[in-house]
Amino acid sequence: MSPLLKLPFIVITNIAIQIISTSPNASIPDKDRASTGVFDKFLPQATKFMTTASWIVAFAEIAQILAGYIWGNENEPSPLYLTPASILGTFFIVMGAYTRRQCYRTLGSMFTFEVTIQKQHKLVKHGPYSIVRHPSYTGSCLVFVGRLLWYFSRGSFLRETTNLAGRALAVAAIIMFTYIIITLLIRLPTEDELLRKRFGKEWEDWAKRVPYRLVPYVY
Q1: What is the pLDDT of residues 121-147, one digit of tens each?
Q2: In the UniProt record, does the keyword Lipid metabolism occur (predicted)?
């Protein structure tokens, strides 16, 4: 499979990552945020690091593919190419970004990256919130799985690179991926408790109708 076929997938993947990493609303002041523990403290920096790193890897991969196409030796095939695993990774990333985007639209001004209950807050029970209680985190988990497939399957830049900088970036990416997902999962009970205290019986009725936090019929 020609390495050039990977180029549109690189662009699509990184646009999707940019969407999930960009808050639709302004940040909430520290005084208005709920306490979510020490894990949550560095989440904004970790998210920015991963987004920036994703674009750096994307541009490096595009440059290497184009350089190989223009100046490469036909007898030495490019180590960067599209595989079923990387295509599946793109699918997960795009689906995760779409899910997050739907959450942005459904919650509107109430959607923030920070855990908080706003003065005008309402309990939203329609759209993706009629399927699971934390669909934005469902989207994040889909992206997490997709990024693992995209960045660490055969033919990917981080897997095929042999230089020290590339290896270090791959290790840093795994650490950041793990940290972000653990932090989001720790948020789940905190957000449920905040909403339960704020909306009482309305939340309890909704939780009975929508008992799953992330994955229908699983969790």
Answers
A1: 889 999 999 999 999 999 999 998 999
A2: yes
Domain 3-22+39-209 class, CATH top level: mainly alpha
pTM confidence score = 0.88
Nearest to 133 by CA among 36, 201, 206: 206
> What 3-state class would DSSP assign to 85?
helix
* Continuous segment of H or E residues that includes residue 196: helix 164-199
What does each C-alpha distance from 35 to 75, 110, 135, 136, 186 come to in angstroms? 58, 18, 21, 19, 12
- All structural domains of the chain with their residue ranges: 3-22+39-209
**What b/e string do you get for 89-119 counting C-beta neighbours within 10 Å, with b at 16 or more?**
bbbbbbbbbebbbbbbebbeeebbbbeeeee
